[in-house]
Specification:
The protein is α+β, with helices and mostly antiparallel strands. The protein has one domain. Helices cover 19% and strands 34% of the residues. The chain contains 4 helices and 8 strands; from the N terminus they run E-E-H-H-H-E-E-E-E-E-E-H. The protein has helices at 42-57, 60-66, 70-73, 168-173, and strands spanning 10-18, 21-27, 83-89, 101-110, 113-122, 132-137, 140-145, 152-156. An 8-stranded antiparallel β-sheet has the order 2-1-3-4-5-6-7-8, with helices on one face. Helix 1 runs antiparallel to helix 2. The longest helix is centred in the first third of the chain and has 16 residues, at 42-57. It starts with 9 loop residues before the first strand and ends with a helix.
């Protein structure tokens, strides 16, 4: 570890239509403390990280069930729209405060079950340059560079329920 400014891997969490959150974004510094009265959302914010962790460890439906099911996670106010969780962090080697890695998990439910979309944005090389990204829906990975494109990458998930986050090392290799 180099001397100087301490690294802050987790930059921010944004949650839309998740439990009590309509649209909340929390930014983190080198030292952050969650404080507030009962019922202010501290546990829900930590729950976002736990859900994303669990989707990477198991699969989407299992993780959602472990957290009480979609109905328990989704904000139950009118037609709120899908759950959208965004995490910005410095995880990959070339991430920086100016170009953090970004992961967006969108969950929605219909008669067929839970549908998910995952979006990744990260820098694959050091220095200046475009960020590389992938959008995953079902078992197909769509390569994104700069603006969204429709070029299909060589990555295909083995199961529509599996998490792209759980296979990020494979995505990065491709």
């Amino acid at each position: 570890m180099s001397a100087g400014k301490p690294r802050t891997p987790l930059r921010s969490i944004q949650a839309k239509n998740y439990r009590s959150f309509v649209d909340v974004e929390v930014e983190f510094g080198s030292f952050s403390v969650l404080a507030g009265p009962n019922g202010s959302g501290k546990s829900n914010l930590l729950s976002v990280l736990q859900l994303v962790r669990d989707t990477a460890r198991t699969d989407i439906p299992t993780a959602v069930d472990q957290h009480g099911g979609y109905e328990q996670l989704h904000r139950a106010t009118g037609d709120a729209g899908p759950i959208e969780l965004t995490i910005k962090a410095e995880v990959t080697e070339n991430a920086s405060s100016g170009a953090p890695d970004e992961y967006i998990l969108t969950l929605d439910k219909d008669d067929a079950g839970i549908r998910r979309t995952e979006d990744f944005q990260y820098k694959r090389t050091a220095g200046r340059g475009r960020r590389l990204g992938f959008a995953l829906e079902g078992v197909d990975a769509v390569k994104v560079q700069g603006n969204r494109s429709n070029k299909t990458s060589s990555l295909t998930l083995t199961d529509a329920a599996s998490s792209g986050l759980g296979t990020f090392a494979r995505i990065n290799a491709h």
